[in-house]
Fold these 2 entries.
Entry 1:
Amino acid sequence: MVRWAVELSEFDVQYKPKGCIKGQVYADFVVELSSTATHQKEGGFRWVFFIDGSSNQQGSGAGVIFEGPNGLLIEQALWFAFKASNNQAEYEALIAGMLLAKEMGAKSLMAKSDSLLVTEQVTEEYQAKDPQMAANLQYVQILKETFTVFELVHVPRE
């Protein structure tokens, strides 16, 4: 390893760690356990996406995985240049997923998240008291109106 490091040092090659991938790993796991046919039977949804946001001391990020018609699979990893809590990262992932679905022309959409707080706030079971969470919730409510059918489902972490 040291020999390679010395030889590569003349080319100014730098190693940068990839960062937090917890959300991506979780989203990949959920996709492996579920099939597109199952989602299409659930209320006739054609577009399904899974979200997971996370944060730590180095930063925050999120993962979004889409399943569309004809086996279409889109994976998106997000890194945020601002500090965010886990729930704020989850909201950002939800918003990014909804915007991508809107751009792809989806009309019927189901989102699956492991955040009970975000899920309950969007379904209006809980209130958003934090100003940033309330702003995110309001934006999600506006985006919901662009779809004929939208459902956010809580997927337990277990």
Note: The chain is about 40% helix and 25% strand.
Entry 2:
Amino acid sequence: MEIVGPSKRMWAGVAMNLFWSAGNMITALTAYLFRDWKTRQLIVSVPAVVFAYLFFIPESPTWLLKHGKKEEAKRIVATIAKKNKVKVDLNVLDEIDIENEEVKQEPFWNLLKSSVMMRRMIIICYNWFAAGMGFYGLSMNVTNLSGSIYLNFFLFILFSEVLAYISCFFLMDRIGRKLLLCISLSLTGAACILPLIPVLVSDTPEKWAINILAIVGNTCASAAMCAVYTFTAELMPTTSRTFGMSMSSICCRVGSLLSPYIVDLTMYLSGRFGQILPMLVFGGITILAALLALLLPETVNKKLPETIKEAEMLGTSAYKAADASPVQLIPLESQSKER
């Protein structure tokens, strides 16, 4: 997210989720072919070794600059420029006075001292909690569908998650991160609550209708997960971005850990309402998250904030003015155009 420009951050965030779906589909195929869990565990660990991407991705030039490593930042920027067949003025990096920048002495825990950032952290962490709970909770509904559980899971990922992530490609930059997150969480909540209607009007509600709503809800929850990844990275300042993403991810895992226990409520409650009670819980939590997300500032096409002070200014007219004026690399004409 820190390496690419504002117009490409959406692509970086969505592409990551598409590879997540590819991994899920491979897992379904592996589970079908290899029923022994030890063999399966070894096989699914192979990609982590083959694609050890950490050795190929360069360090963030922004992070290097903030730690006074200008020469290494220049080398990485020059490599990126060469691969993109453009020329950049590396002398711009020398104009940045690291010693006078407050960011160099800004520890990540200062984020918790800012009332503005603390409020945003609580909201974004709750959004991760709700998205994680809805995503994993609704995914478990696949086991309730008739037919092969392996084929159902594969098709579920292909037509639910992949569709959601492709939709994010076309919507995230057009309507913004905040609106996409709010809409996707609201639709997730609606898809979870709507099964209450057939339960109220019929003593024997059609299970297929509830399953369809669960699939729609998971599609929207997948879109929410995709949006919240990109949104969180753009809300957090460079000095605390890793801390903010880590705390948010922890909240997401807490939501995913709680989701199976909420699904298991059907085991302890009999009657027609017991069947949809987990869906109602998921729906209420995600709708509340959608409403809270409205309090966050929009980040589409904005410069990544580098300090807590800049992050606090997100969504204000002052940040819009500062958005066009920071010291940054300015691509020059390509060699072919010069000729």
Note: Residues 6-323 form a domain with the Growth Hormone; Chain: A; fold (CATH 1.20.1250.20).
